[in-house]
Write a structure and sequence with these properties.
heterodimer, A: 288 residues, mainly alpha, MetI-like fold, 70% helix, globular, B: 437 residues, alpha+beta, D-Maltodextrin-Binding Protein, domain 2, 2 domains, five-stranded mixed sheet, 21 helices, 16% strand
């Protein structure tokens, strides 16, 4: 047999696996987004109707807005917080490694465990109420059943859980900066802030793009925290204040059995993530 | 391989085929019915017992039985139906049956297969319970449970507050807050550490059912089932919703921030709960609660003397199953539903059949009698197509009013509009299906 046929024979199982379990579901999802499908009856072709309907779908618009707020809260503070933590742990000080390990701990448990634990901590009469309310004599705070506090609480928990992860990426980036550059700046009398701003930060551009891309994609895909932590058992409450696009896909697909709408929301999510990532990459290339 | 060993292998294989598979002729006569039920642990041994008896009495029918976790059950049913499969016999909550009916999944009852002369011969055995499964005059299932809620009091907590449920239990919604306040224990900040009474806020079906009952008492419906129309934005709807808002925000007697009322009642953190059915009695006994059961409060100016709405579980047959399988399935439904007395005594599942209401408990236990009396005047919870979507829209509105502090008059028209748009969509689908058929 020809050498190239042998090569094809070897890659065929993997290509087949990817085609069946990756490519086909994605393409089928695109197809479903153009149909009206309720599981009980065969899919009916509706063209772009599902996408057009989303424009005046109050549930989608609410979820879209909530997702944007969450993305904002789960990216900018994470970039700044993780960079500051990395700069701190990039310094030499006593007990640094122990402290760094302790700081990294929230990354280790699965998100669902983090969510369950925080749900208990944020009980209206729980530990966080005791900590936050004891100064003012408050004995009950509706952390997860207030339309204002619930989405904010989820952003804070998310940021708490992911900042250490991104700190490690920043630390890897910082470790890659040639020490001579810092030494030269030091010899020239540059202050630490100036050294960071003019020497380290430009060197961290590739790391910054990576951090920004991963954190943004993750934030857009948020689901577990809202599903587990919300006071109404993952329905997106109170009053849809924690309904994000990921949760809406589940709701449309497997609670309302509106598969076409669920697929359309997924396609919109996909497009948003693609656009933001492309923008970040373009920005990075342009800066080069 | 020697010739002898080849012959031995061939003979062994032939015997195995005959023993394991049976003859082709015998197999052709055998019918297999697939049964799916939601998991209710006390009922499972009864299910298995009935199935064994059924297979013994009908050697030509084989039963494949599966009990599925309650949370997964509706999704699993729909995905199975979607793939063209699904069970031949299944049970479902009355709130969900309309979607199966609209999708032409429900087979009308085959009275002959069940051994009844006609519809009357079946319904005459029951004193109610079929309203949730009657569509255009035809019946599509048989009740395996008909349930309604009533109010359980924790007598110890009532006594502590100097109250006696038999004398002091409020007859009206208007009188309830004052009694609940007397039963409520608050901390120094006024936060209830034990509530006198509270609604089951986290439960969507219970919230829906209670509001619907309050509206029924005022002579209104939450949904006009036959016209696919929401009726929440009516004086009765506004008054009922305002009561819930005031309960949490004005009287501060409870609210959605608390865990489900059933858990709190069984844990002694709630003095009164109105979200248990007659099936709650064993749970009271297990939790060692000295209890009294009282009827639901009514509005002082109620036009209808109903308690909480009734709901049911029905055993139904898949219209897409082959005709012989459907016949066998209805035969099974007959045998299962004939065991009503055991389903009540063994699993607490009540159906209003004579052999159940003739049980000694109904004559001696005043708690059970309260449920039965309430059931006589109860309205059936409306069957809603797009049940989950409608309940979500309703709860979204409730939360906007209670937790978001938005006025009832402002939110209810929007909720009504949301529900109407869901119902319009479902109606259009139903009409398209009817046209296609």
């Amino acid at each position: 047999m020809d050498r190239k046929w042998w090569g094809l024979a070897f890659v065929l199982p993997v290509v087949g696996f990817l085609a069946v379990f990756n490519v086909f579901p994605v393409l089928f999802g695109f197809y479903l987004s153009l149909t009206d499908y309720d599981l009980l009856n065969p899919p009916e072709w509706v063209g772009l109707d599902n996408f057009l309907n989303l424009l005046d779908d109050r549930l989608f618009l609410t979820a879209f807005g909530n997702t944007l707020v969450f993305v904002l809260g789960a990216t900018v503070p994470v970039w700044i917080g993780s960079l500051l933590a990395a700069l701190l742990f990039d310094q030499g000080f006593r007990g640094k490694e122990i402290l760094k390990t302790a700081f990294f701990l929230p990354v280790l448990p699965p998100v669902v465990v983090v969510a369950v634990v925080w749900r208990m901590l944020l009980h209206p009469n729980g530990i966080m109420t005791w900590l936050a309310g004891s100064f003012r004599g408050v004995t009950e705070i509706d952390w997860l059943s207030s339309t204002v506090l619930a989405p904010a609480a989820m952003i804070v928990v998310h940021d708490w859980a992911v900042i250490p992860f991104f700190m490690m990426i920043w630390l890897a980036g910082l470790a890659g900066i040639p020490p001579e550059l810092r030494e030269a700046a030091h010899i020239d009398g540059a202050s630490p802030v100036r050294t960071f701003w003019h020497i380290e930060l430009p060197q961290l551009r590739a790391t910054a793009v990576l951090v920004a891309a991963i954190s943004t994609i993750n934030a857009f895909q948020t689901f577990t925290l809202q599903y587990v932590m919300s006071a109404d058992g993952g329905a997106g409450g109170p009053a849809n204040s924690t309904l994000v696009l990921g949760l809406l896909v589940l709701k449309y697909g497997f609670q309302y059995f509106r598969m076409g709408d669920a697929a359309a929301v997924s396609v919109v999510m996909f497009a948003m993530i693609l656009a933001v990532t492309a923008l970040q990459l373009w920005f990075n290339r342009r800066a080069d | 391989m020697s010739r002898r060993s080849i012959i031995r292998t061939a003979v062994t294989a032939a015997i195995a085929v005959v023993c394991l598979g049976g003859s082709p002729l015998a197999r052709a006569e055998q019918v297999t019915i697939k049964i799916w039920m939601h998991e209710h642990p006390p009922r499972l041994p009864i299910d298995r017992k009935i199935i064994a008896a059924f297979e013994k009495a009908n050697p030509d029918i084989k039963v494949e039985y599966e009990a599925i976790a309650v949370a997964d059950y509706p999704t699993k049913l729909l995905t199975a139906f979607a793939s063209g499969g699904g069970p031949d016999v299944f049970n479902a909550f009355s709130g969900l049956v309309a979607q199966y009916y609209n999708a032409r999944i429900l087979a009308p009852i085959d009275y002959a297969a069940m051994g009844y002369a006609d519809q009357k011969a079946l319904t005459s055995l029951y004193s109610g319970g079929f309203d949730g499964i009657r569509f255009a005059g035809k019946l599509y299932g048989v009740p395996t449970e008909v349930s309604n809620y009533a109010c359980y009091t924790n007598n110890k907590l009532w006594k502590e507050a100097g109250l006696d449920p038999n004398k002091d239990f409020p007859k009206t919604w208007e009188a309830l807050p004052a009694i609940a306040e007397r039963l409520t224990k608050r901390d120094s900040n006024g936060v209830p550490i034990r509530r006198g009474f509270d609604f089951d806020w986290p439960s969507r079906p219970v919230s829906w059912l209670v509001i619907s009952s309050m509206m029924h008492q005022l002579g209104a419906n939450i949904i006009d089932e036959s016209h696919y129309k929401a009726m929440l934005d009516t004086p009765a709807g506004q008054r009922s919703m305002q009561y819930w808002v005031d309960w949490a925000n004005k009287w501060k007697l409870g609210g959605p921030q608390y865990t489900d009322s059933r858990t709190d009642f069984l844990g002694g953190k709630l003095a009164t709960d109105c979200s248990f059915g007659v099936w709650g009695i064993p749970q009271m006994v297990d939790a060692k609660i000295d209890y009294t059961v009282k009827p639901a409060p009514r509005w002082a100016d109620a036009t209808h003397d109903n308690g909480f709405d009734a709901y049911a579980y029905y055993m139904m047959v898949n219209a897409r199953s082959p005709a012989p399988v459907q016949k066998a399935a209805w035969k099974f439904v007959r045998m299962f539903t004939d065991d009503a007395a055991e389903l009540f005594t063994g699993a607490g599942l009540f159906v209003p059949r004579k052999e159940v209401t003739d049980l000694p408990q109904f004559k001696t236990d005043p708690s059970v009698r309260v449920f039965l009396n309430e059931l006589r005047t109860a309205e059936f919870t409306p069957r809603v197509v797009g049940y989950d979507q409608v309940l979500d829209a309703f709860l979204r509105g409730r939360d906007q009013m209670v937790q978001g502090g938005q006025p009832v008059a402002q939110v209810l028209p929007q909720v009504n509009q949301d529900i109407n748009s869901i119902l319009r969509r479902e109606k259009a689908k139903a009409q398209a299906m009817a046209k296609a058929n």
